[in-house]
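Dear colleague,

Following up on Tuesday's group meeting, I ran the structure prediction for the two-component complex that the binding team flagged. I've pasted the input sequences exactly as they went in, so you can double-check that nothing got truncated or mislabelled along the way. The structure tokens for the whole assembly follow below. Feel free to forward this to whoever is handling the docking comparison.

Inputs:
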Amino acid sequence: GAVVSQHPSRVICKSGTSVKIECRSLDFQATTMFWYRQFPKQSLMLMATSNEGSKATYEQGVEKDKFLINHASLTLSTLTVTSAHPEDSSFYICSASTGGNSPLHFGNGTRLTVT
Amino acid sequence: AQSVTQLGSHVSVSEGALVLLRCNYSSSVPPYLFWYVQYPNQGLQLLLKYTTGATLVKGINGFEAEFKKSETSFHLTKPSAHMSDAAEYFCAVSDDGYNKLIFGAGTRLAVHP
């Protein structure tokens, strides 16, 4: 079946540094990728939708300058958390789709801890 | 705006017992409804979905869910729990197919011998 690889699975960084999270579709071309954020005991919240070759569409309340999303190819999207702060500590998860009404395939998530 | 409420953040059942995970939604349009399962250190896996048609939906691993419009519910059931069913379960709603899913907070299912 379709596999989405998300890397790293865990990352600890110091406040003020930037962290890049990668999301790769291993055996299919993902025209659309979604980035979610999940706080402990809360829902997965959609942060942004990215389409290959175009700018990401951010959900209301998500700072696009802080959470940089790049979807440069049909198999790779990256989320960069810039100038991370402790409140950015969370679980980030990506999903990928071939578009239209095709099902989503999820990565395993990245646990970000900012100290 | 759409929303999803999963009643019970933790559910514990005995092996062989009925599994019932509750999900209520709100949507201003006919919804697409989903149940996903997440095993430790893994991504979300689609269990089943409702789009249109038959309101009783069968999914993988013996799970099923029934769409009840009058109750705005989409509860997940399985007649007999297995130890391997222990995981986190998420209910989700969308008015746009698979795009822009709105997730519930999740229910952690524990199965004990």
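The CA atoms of residues 9 and 66 of chain B lie 20 Å apart.

Cheers,
M.
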